[in-house]
Design goal:
Helix content: 10-25%
Largest sheet: 10 strands, antiparallel
Radius of gyration: 21 Å
Number of domains: 2
CATH superfamily of the largest domain: Calycin beta-barrel core domain
Structural class: alpha+beta
Distance between the termini: 74 Å
CATH topology of the largest domain: Lipocalin
Number of helices: 1
Shape: globular
Oligomer: single chain
CATH class of the largest domain: Mainly Beta
């Protein structure tokens, strides 16, 4: 190999390593949203027409969210509503969610700091008609879900604040308490 070829090889190799390291670092910074989350209605602003469609019954405001986060980065969000449909958010990809009247919306999903953001609309050329933002507090104890929907007449926003809950209450609260 010539000296020029070797320099080109090492420059490309080094660039690939740096890119891989930056990608891993960005993925490592994604917060873990996993847990059981109970709504704090007093801290929430609930607006008709802006809710988690399919997760919260008629209001779009689930009382409890169940979130899991897989090693591959997929975030699954479900709720305590019996007829709800769990959602799979794929950061760096597209999330399809059920909308009203059997329609499906494609949402581009990404991390923005400590928040998972999904936004999109009914068509690729459409102005985003739905934006969901799941933001974890610095202490990891609260999750703020902001949902904004836009239409020809304007937009509406709901801000749902959730507190992290234990999956089971402490044993002191069980019918047969622990010792």
């Amino acid at each position: 190999m010539t000296a020029t070829t070797m320099r080109t090889f090492w420059a490309s190799f080094t660039g690939a390593l740096v890119a891989a390291g930056l990608t891993a670092a960005l993925e490592a910074q994604a917060p873990d949203l996993s847990g059981t989350w109970k709504i704090t209605r007093e801290a929430s602003t609930i607006t008709a027409g802006a809710g988690l469609s399919g997760l919260g019954g008629n209001t779009g405001t689930p009382g409890t969210l169940y979130i899991t986060q897989a090693a591959n980065g997929v975030v699954t969000v479900g709720s305590d509503i019996n007829e709800s449909q769990a959602r799979l958010y794929r950061p760096g990809g597209t999330t399809a969610i059920a909308a009203v009247q059997g329609a499906t919306l494609g949402l581009a999903t990404r991390w923005e700091g400590r928040a998972l953001v999904a936004e999109g609309g009914p068509g690729a050329a459409a102005t985003p008609s739905l934006k969901e933002r799941f933001a974890l507090s610095p202490d990891g104890r609260s999750l703020t879900v902001t949902i904004t929907t836009t239409a020809a007449a304007g937009g509406v926003t709901s801000t749902l604040v959730y507190a992290k809950a234990q999956a089971e209450p402490p044993c002191q609260q069980w019918p047969t308490p622990c010792r």
